[in-house]
């Protein structure tokens, strides 16, 4: 609702500035000198504007059901980036009476006050919305898989009332109740009274269209796991062809790595390289101290744009010769081959820093589908229809699948994210994905 969004905006921006007032009181022991306070007021409008842009970019004014950790991680980076921007603005505007110590005092105050305020708003939102009850519709195995994903939220956000599946499926299995078959959809909905339905992948289009007509008469929310066809239709433009109403479908971008993307990659990799070099040196020392017998850097073949194979550089996070006995195996969240130092490097994403060299060379971009190893690409080509479409894009250090997915996100769902990214490619979208990448660094269960 509009009024709740307005309350959030006013509350956030008030606390951003009120924290500065408290910091000034602490810094000057209760009596704020006029010159210092005036320097703050001259800069305050720009700091407030930066904070608003960051709140908006992190989706903190968008309705929906979120875990608290997602909101808190976003608040951490809003505070960090607002603080850094404020220091830079005070320097550029030559407001030297604005003490840097005030910024250092303000940051923890902002995080504390914003966290308390936003936690109260979040709890109220959960209470007002209630648990979203759903009926999952689709082939039995796909419906169970999606129901398990929703169940993993612990029941606070979502609750699956049951499944509507193909005839004869799941009769002997009771993990989730089967409410009926496709032909019994109306009865299943009337008996369970859900707030929403989820259409799984693998459901024939004609059948889904028929069931949609039944669902929309009940004014229920509808969620669809998109297949190749739906993703292709996203961003379609309404038009006419000699009086015929049409949707113009442009397809997937085949060459999105234009000049703007390459210039952005080079500039950012050079800037971040200054910060990355000392971090890599410290990480190298830690790796050698824990396992002196192995190398510091780890090079691995990955498949890039156009199917070209390149050598991806990372800091080593596993024991030496980790795949000697097992062969190529995808890493898991609790992989025993990962060293103690490696777990820290992975959690902080420091192990990815050498890939700045890959970006500078042109092997990768900052934003794009995560490159996979050739052996897994061959496997996914057989298992996931249309998997090669992702190779039309420049591969990246991070991407939409990394900020919206989870560590356990399947290759098929990662492909969906990659194709959705291709349909929405823009400099603004890339910048937003970078901001959200900072957020997911604080969240353990996000995709790698």
How many distinct beta strands?
A: 11
Shape: globular
Please report the number of helical segments: 15
**Into which percentage range does the β-strand content fall?**
5-15%
Parts with pLDDT < 50 across at least 5 consecutive residues? none
End-to-end C-alpha gap = 34 Å
Which secondary-structure class do the elements indicate? alpha/beta
Q: How is the biggest beta sheet arranged? A: 5 strands, parallel
Computed over alpha carbons, the radius of gyration is 25 Å
Number of domains: 3
Q: In sequence order, what are the helices and strands, one letter per element?
A: HHHHEHEEHEHEHEEHEEHHEHEHHH
Q: Approximately how much helix is present in the residues?
A: 40-55%
pLDDT average, as an integer? 87
> Taking strands numbered 1, 2, ... along the chain, how are they ordered across the largest sheet?
3-2-1-4-5
Structural account:
By secondary structure, this protein is of the alpha/beta class. It folds into three domains: 2-129, no CATH class; 132-225, Rossmann fold; 259-440, no CATH class. 52% of the residues lie in helices and 12% in strands. The strands form four sheets. It has a five-stranded parallel sheet, sandwiched between helices. Strands 6-7 form a two-stranded antiparallel sheet. It has a two-stranded antiparallel ribbon with strand order 8-9. Strand 6 (237-241) and strand 7 (244-248) form a beta hairpin. Helix 3 runs antiparallel to helix 4. The radius of gyration is 25 Å and the shape is globular.
């Amino acid at each position: 609702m509009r009024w709740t969004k307005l309350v959030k905006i006013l509350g956030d921006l008030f606390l951003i500035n009120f924290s500065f007032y408290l910091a000034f009181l602490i810094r000057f022991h209760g009596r704020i000198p006029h010159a210092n306070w005036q320097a703050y007021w001259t800069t305050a409008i720009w700091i407030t504007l930066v904070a608003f842009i960051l709140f908006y970019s992190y989706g903190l004014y968008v309705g929906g059901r979120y875990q608290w950790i997602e909101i808190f991680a976003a608040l951490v980076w809003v505070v960090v980036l607002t603080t850094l921007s404020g220091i830079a603005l005070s320097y550029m505007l030559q407001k030297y009476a604005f003490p840097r110590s005030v910024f250092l005092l303000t940051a923890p105050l902002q995080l504390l006050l914003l966290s308390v305020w936003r936690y109260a708003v979040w709890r109220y939102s959960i209470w007002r919305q209630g648990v979203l009850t759903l009926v999952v519709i689709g082939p039995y195995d796909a419906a169970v898989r999606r129901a398990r994903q929703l169940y993993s939220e612990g029941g606070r956000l979502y609750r699956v009332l049951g499944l509507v599946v193909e005839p004869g499926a799941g009769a002997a299995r009771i993990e989730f109740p089967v409410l009926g078959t496709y032909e019994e959809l109306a009865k299943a909905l009337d008996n369970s009274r859900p707030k929403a339905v989820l259409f799984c992948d693998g459901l024939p289009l004609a059948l889904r269209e028929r069931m949609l007509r039944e669902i929309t008469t009940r004014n229920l929310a509808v969620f669809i796991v998109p297949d190749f066809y739906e993703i292709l239709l996203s961003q379609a433009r309404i038009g006419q062809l000699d009086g015929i109403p049409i949707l113009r479908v442009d397809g997937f971008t085949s060459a999105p790595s234009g000049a703007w993307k390459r210039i952005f990659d080079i500039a950012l990799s050079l800037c971040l390289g200054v910060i990355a070099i000392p971090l890599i040196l410290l990480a190298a020392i830690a790796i050698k101290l824990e396992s002196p017998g192995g190398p510091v850097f780890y090079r691995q073949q990955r498949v890039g744009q156009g199917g070209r194979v390149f050598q991806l550089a990372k800091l080593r996070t596993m024991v030496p010769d980790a795949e000697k006995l097992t062969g190529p195996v995808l890493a898991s969240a609790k992989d025993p081959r990962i060293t103690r130092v490696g777990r820290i490097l992975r959690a902080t994403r420091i192990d990815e820093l050498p890939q700045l060299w890959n970006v500078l060379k042109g092997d990768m971009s900052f934003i794009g589908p995560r490159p996979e190893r050739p052996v897994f690409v061959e496997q996914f080509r057989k298992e996931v229809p249309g998997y090669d479409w992702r190779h039309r894009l420049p591969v990246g250090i991070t991407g939409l699948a990394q900020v919206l997915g989870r560590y356990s996100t399947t290759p098929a769902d990662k492909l969906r994210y990659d194709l959705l990214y291709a349909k929405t490619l823009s400099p603004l979208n890339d910048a937003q994905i970078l901001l959200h990448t900072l957020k997911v660094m604080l969240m353990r269960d996000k995709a790698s």
